[in-house]
Amino acid sequence: MLKSILFDLDDTLLDRNASVQQFIAAQYDRLSRSFNHVSKADYVSRFIELDCHGRVWKDQVYQALVVEFGIETIRWQALLEDYETQFQWHCIPFPFLTETLYQLKLQGYLLGIVTNGLGHVQNRSIDGLEIRDYFDTILISEVEQVRKPEPEIFSRALDRLGATAQNSVFVGDHPKADIEGAKGVGMKTIWKQDFYWLETPTADATIDNLNEIPAILQQFDNN
């Protein structure tokens, strides 16, 4: 019988693309008096390009923005601080997030998050989604000093839940960090389909929406 379900955060629980779009537009509205020679459309689109789906650190993104747009009246550090303190108010969940977590808890599963990223940034996103109380453990790579897909971070999460790889499932969007990483320690895997990735991972199941998870878990238990 399955005992625990572990989740990635960005692009699995958090609709990162929608959240970033909303945040960066709001940041422009708040701060553009300091760089009103830059159009909102240019500011938003260039941030998204430089961010590269979250793979580039935000300090580098803002340094590049300041240089490219010739922004002299506000420092990149101030823009970064605004991101770190305000992003959580723009966190958009994927559909059925809280309903699915509630159902899984009702069915007795232990739940965890294993995410790469900075501790204070990821913690604020979790709080922005208002989902912390659903989870029995949360591991963030900066805090743990180990990143997915390294086996240690998955093993650590399982130990803290008192679970084993054989009775646990990992749900994530990243083919290597999430699916390959979790399979590497022996967990079953569910890929939250994301067409950003060119490769299709060999997960045990694939979903488009989070509310598909309970039925898949039942199938896993019946096989």
Provide structural commentary.
- The protein is an alpha/beta fold and 223 residues long.
- It is 48% helix and 12% strand.
- The protein contains ten helices and six strands; from the N terminus they run βαααααβαβααβαββα.
- It has a six-stranded parallel beta sheet with strand order 3-2-1-4-5-6, sandwiched between helices.
- β2, α6 and β3 form a beta-alpha-beta unit.
- The longest helix has 16 residues.
- The protein starts with a strand and ends with a helix.
Number of helices: 10
- Helix-and-strand structural type: alpha/beta
The gyration radius over C-alpha positions equals 19 Å
What is the first-to-last residue Cα distance? 10 Å
Overview features:
10 helices; elongated; 223 residues; alpha/beta; 6-stranded parallel sheet; 6 strands
Q: In brief, what are we looking at here?
A:
The protein has 223 residues and is an alpha/beta fold. The chain has helices at 16-31, 40-51, 58-68, 76-86, 97-106, 119-129, 141-144, 151-161, 175-184, 213-222; strands at residues 4-7, 110-115, 137-140, 168-172, 188-192, 205-207.
List the helices and strands and how they pair.
Layout: E1 4-7, H1 16-31, H2 40-51, H3 58-68, H4 76-86, H5 97-106, E2 110-115, H6 119-129, E3 137-140, H7 141-144, H8 151-161, E4 168-172, H9 175-184, E5 188-192, E6 205-207, H10 213-222
Parallel strand pairs: 1-2, 1-4, 2-3, 4-5, 5-6
Helix pairs in contact: 1-2, 2-3, 3-4
